[in-house]
Design the sequence.
DNA sequence: TTGTAGGCGTTATCAG
DNA sequence: CTGATAACGCCTACAA
């Protein structure tokens, strides 16, 4: 079969335990024998078996990723690849492997996570989203299993390690920007309010309006989730209000694309008839026509820091929960203009 | 510590081996004891430890994914999420977990794969790309480790399990389509010819030209890899030829977006001045303006079948290499028109 | 049909 | 500094 620690031991004429120590680079082994053992490993093409190690060790050197359960939709969003890129960069630095868990429903996802952690496949978990009242999060808390969250948990967020943007501020920033361009009738396509991100941004939106003494109008808020149909119904509702909005804040660039297409079809022109500002700054946003004004939330670093926090937690257990805020920045392009 | 097979055994008043058999659903155990054991598992919240099982078993119930090494660029392409979605759907059906391996360079990727397979983390590997002379593929072949490839391996492709579109046909189809619209000067942005996919499509392109008795012109072929700058240099070279192309075939929708943006900036209009047809049919392509004419290569099924082949190979070793062709289909939208 | 015992490849704990 | 030896949790002959 494959070459084991014993084969190496035999060749180097030492005990298996010594080989193990060499692997762990234990300082109490003389350089001499270390070298002898290393040569033996080399010449035999030895590679440690992670399973055996995990078993003896109770540690796996790998972390699990939990996607939102509606993978099919969500996976089309370049947000996830980018956040995973951030995570895996950090993981790689520390020699951790990455496990993915998916599921078609919340129940399936939960089962996947249960298997992952009870089965001893991972040392910790990153939740790639944050939604209200998430079962997986509660489960992880109950089990006292190390995890970090991208986004802000709804409850007791101080007790949960997470990394997020300052979304209240971000919501305020875009609104302020639009107000400063002279807009007063600003609609907001925020999608389902299950997501804490959206809740926070709306808060910032309201704050900005308030500061500018513009009254908040419920009818300007679109809570529907849509993507494929471009939200035709909702958009045309907005545009046929007595006083239709002159600007639109959209929760996500991808959604903006689809909305822009709808608006185009309806015969309006962007940004002349309607300014649009959204969030995420996907690579594509630059190539949209017109190029999209959007908030860059630094997705890569969201992932990178989430991994960082988690690994830290795994290596030094029993720490306080940590919070990291990743700075955002408004990227003004051509979908927004003064009124 | 966590609850093991022994605890269950004790509670159910049977031997550990019996519990093990119940888990494997061994038919030689009476329904009675099975039930007793299952109750015990339930009440203790037992979950099998995968590491121990793998160790005893020499099988991990997980598969590894190998991305192209230039993850940073490639990951922004929705191709990968979608193909992974296909893979993980199949994997999930068969209760396999998914490992990801990434790396900044080919060397790093290779090391990652080596660790994955020598360390016994995975039972098989899917290579999510196919490029000429790939070290990872050679390595896997040398080790006789089960793997499948998405795309077509350059050498001995009959001996390697892979799933691909009929790219020669696809290349021919788009070219035929354009010719049938009356185009004769058809340029092709194919990117680096390291990728077998591109090589095949070009073959089809040439074939179509030949059939229509149009001479192949080297100057119409753009082999540069670009994305961020929208290929300004190359595009303007094309457009300032004595006889500039009237149609453009582009290897990937994402690239099309960026090219369309460039062309727009140069003052040309699509499809009036230039028709564009590309490949992949990303979700976004529908929302582009104008909506993109493109070949749907059924990315999801590329992934799904790659996983299917691999799992089959893992479960019944020593099989012949298998080839699967996933059908493609031209989706005509608005970036192409008769000349 | 079920129990016993040894092994999978490592690491950890003692001794020396 | 290094060597035995006993876990880690599960599987699988072999026995009963």
Sequence:
């Amino acid at each position: 079969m494959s070459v084991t620690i014993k084969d190496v031991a035999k060749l180097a004429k030492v005990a298996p335990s010594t080989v193990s120590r060499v692997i762990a680079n234990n300082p109490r082994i003389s350089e001499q024998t270390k070298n002898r053992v290393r040569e033996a490993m080399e010449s035999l093409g030895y590679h440690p078996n992670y399973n055996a190690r995990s078993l003896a060790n109770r540690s796996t050197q790998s972390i699990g990723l939990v996607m939102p359960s509606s993978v099919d939709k969500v996976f089309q969003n370049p947000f996830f690849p980018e956040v995973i890129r951030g995570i895996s960069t950090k993981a790689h630095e520390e020699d951790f492997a990455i496990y993915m868990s998916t599921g078609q429903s919340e129940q399936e996802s939960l089962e996947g996570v249960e298997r992952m952690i009870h089965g001893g496949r991972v040392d910790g978990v990153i939740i790639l989203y944050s939604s209200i009242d998430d079962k997986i999060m509660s489960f992880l808390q109950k089990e006292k299993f190390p995890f970090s969250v991208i986004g802000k948990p709804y409850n007791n967020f101080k007790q949960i390690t997470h990394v997020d943007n300052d979304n209240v501020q971000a919501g305020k920033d875009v609104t302020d920007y639009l107000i400063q361009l002279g807009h007063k009738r600003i609609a907001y396509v925020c999608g389902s309010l299950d997501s804490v991100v959206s809740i926070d941004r709306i808060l910032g939106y309201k704050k900005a309006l308030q500061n500018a003494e513009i009254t908040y109008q419920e009818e300007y808020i679109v809570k529907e989730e849509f993507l494929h149909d471009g939200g035709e119904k909702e958009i045309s509702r907005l545009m046929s209000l007595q006083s239709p909005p002159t600007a639109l804040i959209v929760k996500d660039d991808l959604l903006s694309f689809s909305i822009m297409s709808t608006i185009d079809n309806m015969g309006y022109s962007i940004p002349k008839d309607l300014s649009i500002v959204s969030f995420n700054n996907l690579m594509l946003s630059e190539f949209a026509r017109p190029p999209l004004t959007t908030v860059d939330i630094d997705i890569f670093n969201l992932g990178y820091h989430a991994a960082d926090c988690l690994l830290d937690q795994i290596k030094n257990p029993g720490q306080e929960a940590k919070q990291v805020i990743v700075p955002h920045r408004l990227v003004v392009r051509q979908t927004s203009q003064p009124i």
Q: What stands out?
A: Chain A has 13 helices and twelve strands. Chain A touches chain B through 57 residues (CB under 8 Å). The first strand of chain A starts at residue 62 and ends at 66.
